Automatic annotation (TrEMBL):
Keyword Manganese: no
Keywords from the named record: DNA-binding, Transcription, Transcription regulation
Biological process annotations from GO: carbohydrate derivative metabolic process
Full protein name: MurR/RpiR family transcriptional regulator
Domain SIS: 125-266
Matching InterPro entries: Homeodomain-like_sf, HTH_RpiR, RpiR-like, RpiR-like_SIS, SIS_dom, SIS_dom_sf, WH-like_DNA-bd_sf
Domain HTH rpiR-type: residue ranges: 1-76
MF term (GO), any: DNA-binding transcription factor activity
Length: 266
């Protein structure tokens, strides 16, 4: 067993040694520069108790223990660990663990998007945006933040983009949309789509409709850019934040923008 695994298992440890081990695991980021006296003071123990614990784990003393522990921590950080998209870390995690898990989550999200994104649909969406007079966007909650960022980015392409439900004027925008416009709907769960009659009305008028979602078997839109559901649809019951869904949506919007930018330069 590695030093880190021995600390976590705490087999045959005394009460004092368990206290020391728990403190070390909770403050892994600090142990690399902490003296034995500093550790003893922080754990209300003694230098002798720490040395006994180190020897119990096969180390000659605290210095060797500290060097090996830092190596174990670095090795674990390099290992690819399964990513829980709803709860990538827990409150007891150290700062370095949190940074590692969030980085792993975002890397895994980008990889998942890359492997699953329908390139033809992305290209169609980008082409329609380039051709459109106005790009209308419907999004709710955290997705609206991504939508606003995307609409601001489209200004660089000299395109007019409006988040239709940002100020409660959705019906007015939908009523005025025409055949030279695009309506983009962003909803990870599919719980916040356009009402079906509105979507049907837009399509009758020739306004192209695009859906970005993890929802399966959708037929009400002209183009559907779907990515896998890896995060709970509900905001309660353990989900920490919308890390996965919003990283995925931002990635998709960035790809659409990049393709549109390239098309305008053709």
């Amino acid at each position: 067993m590695t030093v880190l695994e021995q600390l976590e298992a705490a087999e045959d440890f005394t009460y004092v040694e368990r206290k020391i081990a728990a403190f070390i695991l909770e403050h892994k980021d600090e142990i690399g520069v902490m003296t034995i006296s500093g550790l003893a003071a922080a754990t209300y123990s003694s230098n002798a108790a720490i040395i006994r614990m180190c020897r119990k784990m096969g180390m000659k003393g605290y210095k060797e223990f500290r060097i090996q522990l830092v190596r174990d921590i670095e090795r674990r950080q390099r290992e690819k660990l399964p990513v829980n998209m709803d709860r990538p870390f827990y409150k007891e995690a150290s700062a370095s663990d949190i940074v590692k898990q969030i980085s792993d989550l975002m890397t895994e999200t980008i990889r998942t998007c890359y492997e699953s994104m329908p390139v033809r649909e992305l290209e169609r969406a980008a082409r329609w945006i380039v051709e459109a007079d106005t790009i209308y966007i419907h999004a709710v909650g955290d997705s609206m933040i991504s939508a606003i960022a995307f609409s601001n980015r489209l200004i660089k392409l000299n395109k007019r983009a409006v988040v239709v439900n940002q100020y409660g004027e959705e019906w007015a925008y939908v009523r005025n949309a025409g055949r030279r416009d695009v309506m983009m709907v962003i909803s990870y769960s599919g719980h916040n789509l356009l009402k079906r009659n509105l979507c049907a009305g837009l399509r009758r008028k020739g306004c192209r409709t695009i859906l970005i979602s993890s929802l399966e078997k959708v037929t009400d839109y002209d183009a559907v850019i779907r990515f896998p559901a890896r995060e709970s649809y509900e905001s309660y019951g353990g989900k920490m934040a919308t890390y996965y869904s919003q990283t995925a949506i931002s990635c998709i919007l960035n790809c659409i923008y990049g393709i549109a930018f390239a098309k305008i330069g053709e």
